[in-house]
Batch of 4 targets.
Target 1
Amino acid sequence: MRLDILNRGYSPATKVLFALIRLFSGHPVPDAAKLVFYRPDFYGARAKECTHEAMRGPSDWSVGDRELMAAYVSKVNESAFCVGAHTATASQAYQDGLRVAAVLADLESAPVEEPLRATLRMLGKLTAEGKVSAGDMREVLSAGVSPRQVEDALAVCVAFNTTDRLADAFGFEVLSPEGFQAGAEYLLKRGYR
């Protein structure tokens, strides 16, 4: 069930902005963008900053790696909108959609390096169970992941566990493949601000 608040409740200036985005992009404004414009003082401004830092801030993980983490966490959460958005973005970032699809289909047999596989495994467990053990963390560290990379991956996990839940609570509309591709181009060019 879609919450109607994403269809109304914006200032006239924001409505004009949405119309311009649709005119120039040829695509409707995704619900994720609409959400950050609704009550930006309460959620939007903070969410954009937090997500941008997790996804585009300094990190030893590549942009593609972090977008894949977002897609993987979203898959565990079964959030169709976020899986589509971040699968498209990771695929463009890596220039390798088959690799992204392989990870989302079967992490254990996917063609990824062991540090990334161990990290995704840990993020999946944290997302599904709400906790990880010291042993889980030792496994990630022994796979060659630095403590800083663990922190960065956890920041992605926090951002997308929040976003996935909001996407499902508000009933975000799933975009067409072309809409997801356009959104991915935007995210890779401009980030999350």
Target 2
Amino acid sequence: MINFSTWAKPEVKLNSPEIILQADEWCPYNCKPNSALPGFMVEIAKAIFEPHGYQVKYQKLNWPRALHNARTGKINGVIGALYSDAPDFIFPENSQGSVVNAIWARKDINLNYKSVEDLKGYTLGAIRNYSYGIELDKYIKSNRHSAAKIQLISGANPLESNLKKLLHNRIDLIIEDNAVLKFSLQNRVIKQQFKHIADIASEPIFIAFSPARPDSKKLAKLLSDGMKNLRLSGELATILHNYSVPDWQ
């Protein structure tokens, strides 16, 4: 078994085969490309694939377009997919993270959330083409044409847009992963303006590969096997520590 903590990783050459992955910015899972902290799932991909001679390229793009590009084979895959996001994609057996979707609100909102029925009377902000679990997905689909109930948003940084809408009373609630929202609000004065209402569901999250490319099954297996090695060697813990994210297993 390879010990990644002691093994000298080979230099990735410019002519190495590329693995192109796209997603909209969703720190700490995937952040600003080519930065010191590009996101822990980006670092996981690089740590696993580059020793096999691949060059990992992460590109920021809005989620619907990223899914389309992967689905049609223009790129290798997407970062941060749930099974329900893209059931036709090729998923590795072992996950690259775990999401905990939660309802967040302005501090003046008093909501005792038990089910989607409790959302009546509030305007919920969500991200277009994201999956939030069966119950909330059904609620969003049923009310997506009512701006008083649901407001869907897309773009390169949809979370920031939703936070601004929340601050300006254009919506009352948002649904977002706890790690993402906490990472976004850390060291920001505006974090005092929001509060956590309820956790909705926890699901594994993946780097998922194009159903249209012949190498996707191979890449998914390399990634799945690599997760075991990263965890055993301690390198996964080192990567996660830099983002203040605990291991989900």
Target 3
Amino acid sequence: MNQNRLIVVGVDGSDGGRRALDWAADEAAARGGTVQAVVAWRWDGIEAGPTTATNPTDERRHAEELLDRAVTDLVRRQGPGHPVAGEVAEGRPADVLTAAARTADLLVLGSHGHNRLRHTVLGSVSEECVRKASCPVVVVPVPVPAAGAATEPALRG
């Protein structure tokens, strides 16, 4: 990746989105590029997520607050100096992200590890972006805890 390259990253308030933003910021810093953090929102009248928005204006405001919080938290974690711009756009996440990345050099997404039922019913934004994007796509995984790590007591020696 050459100087002044654009990295678009999907931000959604999840741990996967946070990890994707961190990865994109690190990559942009290493390559002299910029990051465009994108939050997709849409109002369909159905409460399907963690937001309590009751109308499109509230939903957009929630998306703007999510973006502001993500960028502020990035600066808190990594310090100033990362060129990050933000965009809130209405539409299906995969459509919004691939449109935003149309002229980008890279699209970065976080994996969420949704359960099989949700994946089957709703599909996967990452998978759809991989199929639709006109640039390379990086999917940053969320680490899987070691089996039994939280439930087994520590061994004492």
Target 4
Amino acid sequence: MTKNCVIIPCYNEELRLPISEFEENLTSQNSLYFCFVNDGSSDGTLNILNKLKNRYPNQIYVVDKKKNAGKASAIYTGINEMLKLNSFDIVGYLDADLATSIQEYERICTYIHPPIEFVFGSRIKRIGSHINRKLHRHLIGRVFATLSSTMLNLPVYDTQCGAKAFTSKTAKQIFNEPFISDWSFDVEIFFKFIHLVGKDKVEEKAKEIPLESWRDVGDSKVKLSYSLKLPFELLRIKRYYKKKFK
């Protein structure tokens, strides 16, 4: 049985964490594990996570970061903590609000088999799908995704979808160093993956999978003002990796 661990970064999620959805999955099967990373929350998030761990001690891991360091750092920490255990075939991550459901995550993970070692969801609104996204977030996302795709020179539609998974071997190489960006770290993943497998092998070893459903849960923690900085952030990332991998 494939063992799959999902990293869930948590910052002040006391009122947003869909505990019942996690419990439903934990009760129904035991091939999926969860590592919740408390990213210096100031509310009751850690208490909720510890209670969940006490109920499911064999399937839940809790990593407590005392100081808030951002989503990229939380995911980086969680994945590396799980890789130390050498127990998982696949590691990935989802947003704490489960905008992408656990079922959708499991579905995209079924595509991980040789030669595919990296899969990620894509929020493509189309007939037959249920992609519920606020208009302004969709428009900002499309601008960012277009800029990212052009910069990477890859036909990727949605770099920022918060549902990604990797073979453990690939994750060890992608997450071997911290990211330089917080909210744009997903783009860094693509730069690292290109360097890892070679540009001509990306489409052979990675797969972008349109989601059947995705829900826009509450307000984004990314401030609208940050969207104005995105082009400059992408340029900073590009320059960094161009220098690093030259």
